[in-house]
Amino acid sequence: MPEKLYIGMAGFGTVGRGVYTVLKRNAEIIERRSGHALEIKTIVCRDIKKAHDFANEANIVNDLNAIIDDPEISIAVEVMGGIKPAKSFILNAIRNGKDVVTANKALLATHGDEIFREAQKHNRRVYFEASVAGGIPIIKALREGLAANQIFEITGILNGTCNYILSSMHQSPVSFEDALKEAQKLGYAEADPTFDIEGLDTGHKLTILSALAFGTPYQFDSSRVCGITSVSSTDVKYAQKFGFVIKLLAIARKNKDNISFSVSPTLVPENTFLAHVNAAMNAVEIKSDALGTSFYYGAGAGGEPTASAVLADLVDLARGNQVSMPLSEANSVALMPIDAVNDKNYIRLHAPLINEKAGLVEQIFKQFDIRIDKEMSEENNLVFITHECSENRFSSALDRIRRSFGETIAIHVMKIKK
Amino acid sequence: MPEKLYIGMAGFGTVGRGVYTVLKRNAEIIERRSGHALEIKTIVCRDIKKAHDFANEANIVNDLNAIIDDPEISIAVEVMGGIKPAKSFILNAIRNGKDVVTANKALLATHGDEIFREAQKHNRRVYFEASVAGGIPIIKALREGLAANQIFEITGILNGTCNYILSSMHQSPVSFEDALKEAQKLGYAEADPTFDIEGLDTGHKLTILSALAFGTPYQFDSSRVCGITSVSSTDVKYAQKFGFVIKLLAIARKNKDNISFSVSPTLVPENTFLAHVNAAMNAVEIKSDALGTSFYYGAGAGGEPTASAVLADLVDLARGNQVSMPLSEANSVALMPIDAVNDKNYIRLHAPLINEKAGLVEQIFKQFDIRIDKEMSEENNLVFITHECSENRFSSALDRIRRSFGETIAIHVMKIKK
Fold first, then answer.
1. In which band, very low, low, confident or very high, does the pLDDT at A1 lie, cut at 50, 70 and 90?
2. Looking at the predicted structure, is the pLDDT value of residue B398 above 90?
3. What pLDDT score was predicted for residue B318?
4. ipTM
C-alpha cells in the first residue's frame, strides 16, 4: 500500500469546494496517477457551519495553525486569496516542512521572490498552476513542456470577467456599463469588479508568466496596466468593421535589452485563435525559438476548472517531482512599457464636423511618416488603422492632432496585435 | 557542480539534427532548468560522414551497441523511427539500465505495452512527448496537467501532411492529387505518402492518446482508419457552402461500455478552433470532467519543434521526475468503431439527373426518421446535412438509397463534428 498523504486546505470558497468535490469524485484516478491516496485532513475557513454542510466528513476549523502545526500534514493548499493572512500562512507552512500549493496570483505577483526563496532555503516546493489561467496547464507548459525553448513572447487573455464583458459587447451594441451589469447579474463579475475590469488581475497573472519566461522580478506595477472601462460600443463597432475584435491582451515580449510588458485593450485580427476566445474563457499564445507558435485554451476560472490545476499540482508533489523554484534572476532585465516597438494602431477622432477635416489629419500623419492602411469617416467619427510605425512618431502625431483641434476633440487609441 | 548526464542518440535525420542543434543553442537554459549539463556523447546513424559534416564534435558511429553497452550513457534517445531495429534498441537500453526518450509513434502504437512493461520491470522510464503532435506538450497536459480529470473525449488534427493538403484544397479548388503533388514539391509530403494520407500515422498517434486517456491497449488496428484520398474538391466546395471545413479528425470517445475510436475526414463547423488549424499545424481538443473543454495547438512536425518535445523529456528525466509507465489497464475496455452514437451527417449523391429525384431521397430519409437540416441541389449533385440520427438508421437509409438508384449513383458520406 502506498503511503497516504495528508493535506491541509486554507480557504473553502468556490475553489476550495471545487478541490474537495473533484478529489472526492476522482479519488481513484488521482491515487493511480499520483501513487498515493490524498486526503484533505483539515479545512480552515471562517464559516465553519456552512462548510460542514458541504463537507460533512472533514475536520473544519478556523485556525490556520491547525494546518501549520500538524506534523502529519505534508502539503498546505492555500485558496484563500489576498495577501493577509495568506502570505504568513504559506511562509510558516514552508518553515514547518510542508510543500505548498497556491492559487494566489496577487500574492505571487508581489511577494513571489520572498516565498520561493523561503521554499528554496527549506528545500520545500511551492506549486501554483491555478494562479494563472485557471485549469489550463500553462505553468507546466511553460516550465516543463517548453523547457528547452527561448521564449520570445507571451500573449494572454487571462481574465474571464473582462473577456465575458468584451464578448457581450461584440455580440450586440451594448455599452460597457450595461455589459458589466449583465455580467454581474449572471455571476461573471463581482459586486465590486474593480480588480478585474481595471486589468489588475490580468497584470498579476502576466507578472507571474513573465517571471517564469524571462526571469523578471515579481514586482507588479499597476502603472503598466490599462483595463477595459474605456472601451465603448462605438470602438467595438469600428473594430468589427475593419475585421478586428477587441480583447484585453496581456503581452510580455523579449526585446534586445529589456522585456516589454503591457496589459491593454487591443485589436485582434478576427481570423486568429485569440479572436475566437469568447465568454469567460482564457487562452495563452507562446512564441518560442524551437517550437514556434503554440496556443493553449480553456476555462480560466470557476471551482472545478481551478481545482483541476490545484489537484494537478498535488499529483506532481505526490509523485515527488522536482522543479526548481522560479526565482527571478539576479541579472534579470527590467520590465519596460512597450514603446520602442513598431505597432499598427487604431485611432478614432471624435468631434463635431471632424469628418470635414480628414484632409488635415491625413496631412499630419504624412508629416510624421505614418502610413494609413484603412480609413472610415462617419457620424462625427474619423477612424484610422495605421501601418506599423514607431511609438515615438505616433505619439508626436497625436500631440500635433491634439494641438491642431484643441479641446473639442476626443481621441481613442488602441494597439493592433501583430 | 551538478553531475553531467550523457546521452546516446540513435538516428540523425531531421529530428536528431533538431535535437543536436537546439541542445547546443540553448545549453545554458536547459542546464538551468534540468539541473544538469546534458551532453550527446554518442550518435548512431548510417551515414557517418554526412553526420560528421553536421556535428563535427560528436562521437558518431553506426553500431547501436555503442550506446547500449556504454555504462556512462544514462539516457538513450531513439529518433530512428520504424520497428526494427528501434524496438530491440529500446528494450536493450532499458535492460542495460538506461532511461529512454523516443519519438516513435508507430512502435508505441503497436508494442507500447511490451516496452512500458519492460521499463517498469527494470525500474526505468520511457518518455515519448515527441511521438504525438510534435512540439505541443500534449502528453504532459494529458498525464500531468489533467491528472485529476476523467477524460471524456479527445479530438485531434495529428498529421501535418494531411492537414496541409486539406488546407490547400480549401484555399483554391484543386483536386486531392494536385494538392498532394504540390505538398510533395514543397516538402510537406514524402515521395511515398501512403502512411500519412491513408490515416495510419494519425491512427498511431490516436492509439497512444487513447491508451493514456482511457487505458486502451497499444494495438493499432488499421481497419478503424480512413484517410483523405477520397476527399474531392466537390465535397470541399459543398462543405464550405454549408459553413464547414473538412479535416482529418482523430476521435477517441468514452461511451458507457466502450471507447469509440475513429480516424476519418470530418466536417468541422467553421467557427471552431479546429477549423482554424491550417497548413501543417496540429491541434488537440480534450473534454474532461473538471476542466471542461481545453485546446492545444502548435507545430506537429519538423526538426526543431519535435526536438523541443524530445528535450523537454530529457529535462524531465534529468530532474528525476517520476511518472508511472502508462500500461494499458487489465480491465481496459475494447476499442470500438464509432457506431452507437448519434451524429450529424453530410451526404452527397452524385448521378445524372439526380436533382430531379430529390423528392424520392427525402421520402427515404423520412421513412427512417432522419430529419434533414440543409439541402442543396445542383450539377448532378444532391447534398444533404442531416440532424443527429443513429448510425443504424442512417446506414439503413443509405442502403435503401443504393438499392433505389442502382449502380449509377455515387454516394459520398462524412460525419459532422459535434
1. low
2. yes
3. 95
4. 0.96
Binary contact (B291, A311; C-beta < 8 A)? no
d(CA B126, CA B143): 14
Residues of chain A with Cβ-Cβ distance to B292 below 8 Å are 135, 298-299, 304-305
Cα A90 from Cα A108, distance rounded (Å): 11
Segments of B141-187 assigned E as strands: 151-157
Collect all residues of chain A within an 8 Å Cβ-Cβ radius of residue B320. Answer: 320, 322
B375 DSSP β-pair partners: B384
| Three-state secondary-structure class, residue A346 | strand
Q: Angle at Cα A158 formed by Cα B299 and Cα B290, nearest 5°? A: 80
Instruction: Name the β-bridge partners of B348.
Output: B383, B412
d(CA A349, nearest CA chain B) in Å: 33
In percent, the amount of chain B with pLDDT more than 90 equals 87
Go through B246-277 and write b for each residue having 16 or more CB atoms within 10 A of its CB, e for each that does not.
bbbbbbbbbeeebbbbbbbbbbbeeebbbbbb
Contact B137 A148 (CB under 8 A): no
| A vs B: CB pairs below 8 A | 199
Q: Which DSSP state fits A354?
A: G
DSSP class of residue A19 equals H
Q: Is A340 a residue whose pLDDT tops 80? A: no
Which run of H or of E encompasses A101? strand A99-102
Residue in A146, A281, A289, A323 to test binding to B, most B beta-carbons within 10 Å: A146
Scanning every residue of chain A, which has its alpha carbon at the shortest distance from the alpha carbon of B145? A137
Task: Copy the grid coordinates of residue B363.
Answer: 421520402
What proportion of chain A, given as a percentage, has pLDDT over 90?
Answer: 87
Does pLDDT of B330 surpass 60? no
The pLDDT, as a whole number, for residue A335 is 66
Is residue A408 very low, low, confident or very high in pLDDT (cuts 50, 70, 90)? confident
